[in-house]
Amino acid sequence: MNLELQEVDNFLPEELFKKLADYSITLDYSSKAIVRSAKDYNTHIFLSNRIQEDDNLIKELEKSIKKHFRIKIKNFHLAAFTCVNTKEATPHTDGLEFPNEKHLIIYLHGDSKLNAGTGFYKLLSSKNNVGQFDLNTAVCFYPNRALIFNAAGCFHSPLLYSAEGNLPRFSIIIWFEPENIV
């Protein structure tokens, strides 16, 4: 597993972060906003609300990507606000459009405990499309924390199995092909 996982706190400027955190809890979310064309994948693990590539928010987010991770968006795959409230760990990989794609998660609103973050898993075995996984790395939720990682072959899952009540986690995800800043 070659995650190249990086995390940064205070990722967005405070005013923008507060605006997005408040906005995220007012949106309508759907499990069909991010889907693959494969027959076995017609809903996504989380609920989402797409952000269009030409939305000015993408430019604002890219400023923070450049500042903190020293890369820029060479080719855009997708972006969305997400809402997760599943209690069961559901290790999965996301669809890739580019061979060296990066996936970014920005935590906006939720329970600031380890179990409200993201887990990264090692696939131990697979039989009849059912995998056995071992939790390798866990990153806890913290408002305005950003995670970026290599997407290829990366099994990951929300970690909400013992979060308070049924409190969901709201985030922004961006999937893109990176280009280093020289």
Topology of helices and strands:
Blueprint: E1 6-8, H1 14-24, E2 47-51, H2 56-69, E3 71-84, E4 102-109, E5 118-127, E6 130-139, E7 146-150, E8 155-158, E9 169-180
Antiparallel strand pairs: 1-7, 2-3, 3-9, 4-7, 4-9, 5-6, 5-8
Structure description:
By secondary structure, this protein is mostly beta strands. The chain has two helices and nine strands. The protein has helices at residues 14-24, 56-69; strands spanning 6-8, 47-51, 71-84, 102-109, 118-127, 130-139, 146-150, 155-158, 169-180. The strands form two sheets. It has a six-stranded antiparallel β-sheet with strand order 1-7-4-9-3-2. The chain has a three-stranded antiparallel β-sheet with strand order 6-5-8, with no helix packed on it. Strand 5 and strand 6 form a beta hairpin. It is globular, with a radius of gyration of 16 Å. Mean pLDDT is 86; it is low at 35-43.
Query: What would the average pLDDT be, to the nearest integer?
Result: 86
Helicity range: 10-25%
Q: What class, by secondary structure content?
A: mainly beta
How much of the polypeptide forms β-strand, as a percent range?
A: 35-45%
Unreliable segments of 5+ consecutive residues: 35-43
Shape: globular
Biggest pleated-sheet summary = 6 strands, antiparallel
Strand order of the largest sheet: 1-7-4-9-3-2
Tally of helical segments: 2
| Total beta-strand segments | 9
> C-alpha Rg, in Å?
16 Å
Ends apart, CA distance between termini: 27 Å
The string of secondary-structure elements, in order, is EHEHEEEEEEE
Quaternary structure classification: single chain
